[in-house]
Specification:
The chain is an alpha+beta fold. Helix content is 28%, strand content 20%. α2 links the parallel β3 and β4. The longest helix is centred in the middle third of the chain and has 17 residues.
Amino acid sequence: MTITDQMGNTLSWKSAGSLGFRGSRKGTPFAAQQAASNAAGMARDHGVRAVEVRVAGPGSGRESAIRALAAAGIEVKTIRDVTPVPHNGCRPPKRRRV
């Protein structure tokens, strides 16, 4: 999670890996929630009161990260999905066999 100003300059960032989550625990909603709340706390020190959220990519932590922002006292104005959609680009990898 990265929090920037209007010009795109980074004010604060946190990732699940920087918080000590390793392996498959990095992709959990709890790890996303922890990263979001830590980044929001650092951004509040810079004077951030309201944000416009842009989420990209699939994942189970999208909603929990936005909820953590709101719980940290930062007003969420808009939520926008900016996931890039390929126009039939590269060939996908083989199907996974389990």
